[in-house]
Specification:
Elements lengths: L4 H13 L13 H13 L4 H8 L3 H4 L6 H8 L1 H10 L13 H13 L7 H23 L11 H17 L5 H22 L9
Helix pairs in contact: 1-3, 2-3, 2-8, 3-6, 3-8, 5-6, 7-9, 8-9, 8-10, 9-10
Amino acid sequence: MELSSRFDTALALASEVHRSQYRKHGNTPYISHLLAVAALVLEHHGDEDQAIAALLHDSLEDQSDRISSDDLERAFGPRVREMVERCSDTHGQAGHPKPPWLERKEAAVRGIGSLGPDHPVLLVVAADKLHNAGCTVEALRREGPIVWKSFRATPEETCWYYRSMTAALGNTGWVHPLLDRLSRVVDELCQFAETSRSQGYTELSAF
């Protein structure tokens, strides 16, 4: 597959709308995550729409004041719009706070679990969760339990979310090597969460 200028446009847009964002751990520009997710999608034979959705999968959730669903459809078509919407646990609006964390995540898990095994967003979601969980595991190895302070949720809640999303992906009937990799990384993440709990680490994040 040869990528077209649509991918170039999406890459420039992702860089623009996320320019002021950084990853939870350290000062890594947020675009690094989007590039990693898109790379995973392409390496696992995703098509151009899936790669574009990977680049923009956090745009509606994090930067809705700069981009809308209609903008995505005009630029990249309804298929990309739908995938990005399904990757978003909320579409934020200025002056309107996000719903509570647990409510958003439960809805996200239900939404993914309701899809069929051929839905194109499954690859994007798996790549996103794999990269996020993997980065968290690496940070926990380097820095220890202090990493949990970066999260809106407790270690136990974070483990629940990743396990639930992994199960939801599997419950669609989707079979894919990325899902196996995700399951292994989530197991390791949850081991860190359990160790933190057993050591008495109960401090919540600053959010």
